[in-house]
Every structure is written in C-alpha cells, then in structure tokens.
Amino acid sequence: MSHPFKAILVSRGEDKKQSVAVTELSDADLMDGDVTVSVEATTVNYKDGLAITGRAPVIRRFPLVPGIDFAGTVLASSHADWTPGDKVILNGWGVGETHHGAFARRARVKGDWLVPLPDGMTAKQAMAVGTAGYTAMLCVMALERHGITPDRGPVVVTGAAGGVGSVATAVLSGLGYHVVASTGRPAEAGYLTDLGAREIIHRDELSGPAKPLGKERWAGAVDSVGSHTLANVLSMTSYGGAVAACGLAQGMDLPGSVAPFILRGVSLLGVDSVMAPKALRLEAWSRIGKDLDPGKLGALTTTIDFDGIVEAAHAIVDGRIRGRVVVDM
What's the pLDDT score for residue 152? Predict the structure, then answer.
C-alpha cells in the first residue's frame, strides 16, 4: 500500500466556481497510465497560473491536479521504453488539463508522453526550461526551418521577461542573433541584456492597433503575446521574414491585415507544444542541452517549494514573475 502524498486539487462546484485546496492523495487516486513517476521537480507556467486562478478554462475535468510539466524518476512501468530508475520529463499531452498533473508528489501517465532527461541535466534544470523553454526552442527551430538565420537581420521577442521570452532571448543570442526584446517592465532591461538582448523596446510600441504595414524592423519574431502585439510584429517584419507564434498573453484575437502576407511574403508559423510529436520533442530537448547556456538558465530561474505554487500562479498571471519558476518537490 502506498503512502499518502501531498497534492494541489482544483474542484468546481455546481455554481461553476472553482476552488483550490492542498490535500493528500494515494496511488489509488491517480489516473490511468502505464508509468508511475516520483515527481522531483515541476514548474509554474503561465498556463498553470491560468488553471489555478481560473482566469481561463485550462482545466477541463474536475476535480483535477494541475501542472503541465514535471521531471522525476520512474517508480513502476509496464511500458516497453521505461524501467524503474529512469529519469524522465513530461511536457503537455493534456496533463494538468484533462489528466492529473504535476502538482503532486506522484504522477501516473502514458509512457508515450515521456522523454528522457538529457544527459548532464538535473530535474530542476529541466524544469527551469519546462514547457515555456521547450516551446521557446520549438519557436527557434521553426524560424530556422524557414531560413531565418542571424545574417537575415534582427529577431524580436515579445513578452521577453516572461518564461518563453527569457529562454528565447538566451537561446537566440547564444546562436548569434541580434535580439530585440520587447517588455512592459523597463526595470528588467539589465536582466534582458544579461541574457543577450541587444536592444530593449517597450511593449507599448507594439500593443496598440496595428497599421496594415509598418516600417520593416526585423526578419523574424518569437511571439507569446498574440492580439495587437502579434499584428504589429507581423506588420513590421521584413520581406520574406517569419513570425513564430505560441502564446496569448494579450489575447487570442489577431486584429491585423493580410498585407504582410501578400505584399511582403511574411509567414506566420504556429507553434504548439502540447501535442507536438515525440521526434520533435526529442530534437528540442537535445537542442536545449546544447544551445541553452546553463549559466543563463540559472540566472533566469527562481526556486520555490510546493507551498509556494498557488501564490506563484497568481503572480505569473499578474505579470509579477520574471523568467522561470522551479518547484523543488
């Protein structure tokens, strides 16, 4: 019989109001899966913040343990790829949305959802990367596949002080790109410069209604903001450039024009991390191991314990968190 373990559980009453409680669960409470993992580290992403605060309908069945990322050690497995003692990472696949997630000491999941922890990387380092950093790397890879190399010109990163933006800034600068970091927090200029940004612009330059075409300012972009910001970024992307879009911090709408696409040949590259195929995940994590400076990763990371998760969830959706938050379980 397994010992009880601590977990965060989000429930919803008949009035559709969401409540969050710290409780104890046992292995019997876990959902179906062929691998059970001891969760050693997790993280608080923007999406986790939305889930816990209820500000967006991220959780789609109740009650549920939130948390879309974890790293840990396999305890039990009937899956051919995994044996007890293996070090693994999980990102996405509906975990923390429709399947019990990372904000518990244990998780039971499908083995097909797991990838191996890269050699030389700790569980905490993997969660310093987390879905935000893994998504940032998918964005970089999308730009590369489209031929956006450093010699094509600057790349703008929106929401640069957030999780996706911080990792994108660090990775792109390390690869030799001229990074223009857009942020609503001018006090973070030094932090972003340390990560490798060459220019800092205020998000107000991009957050209002966009013209159909603006001055050509960059060859590429990583956008985690959406809405007017994405429309402005597209309008200012140079001929043949590309924008990798992966987020909706400003909104899900795209109030722009077709002009950048039909007059400048700009491409909008959608980047999804949740259901990305395993081969792409393995490539992204391999690249993270090579292309993300561990020193920069440490500089953009704050570590909290389990008891700090709920407060961090509120802080991240309020825009009060810089970089990445690791939860040491």
Answer: 98
User: Where does residue 240 fall: left (phi above 0), alpha (psi -120 to 50 degrees), or beta otherwise?
Assistant: left
Residue 36 contacts residue 104 (beta carbons within 8 Å): no
Task: Give the residue from 178, 94, 92 showing the smallest Cα distance to 133.
Answer: 92
Which residues of the chain are under the pLDDT cut of 50?
A: 1
Report the relative pairing of strands 87-91 and 106-109 from DSSP bridges: unpaired
Residues 257, 225 share a domain: yes
- What total number of domains does the chain contain? 2
Residue 112's CB is within 10 A of a number of other CB atoms, namely: 12
pLDDT, position 219: 98
pLDDT number for residue 16: 84
- What is the CATH classification number for the domain harbouring 165? 3.40.50.720
Closest to 137 (Cα-Cα) out of 153, 126, 123:
126
Could you give the C-alpha distances from 118 to 67, 126, 287, 296, in angstroms and in order? 21, 8, 10, 18
What residue numbers bound the domain in which 307 lies? Answer: 5-117+298-328
Alpha-carbon distances, residue 30 vs 17, 54, 61, 109, 212 (angstroms): 24, 22, 14, 9, 51
| 270, burial (CB in 10 Å: exposed 0-12, middle 13-18, buried 19+) | exposed
278 within a domain of the structure (yes/no): no
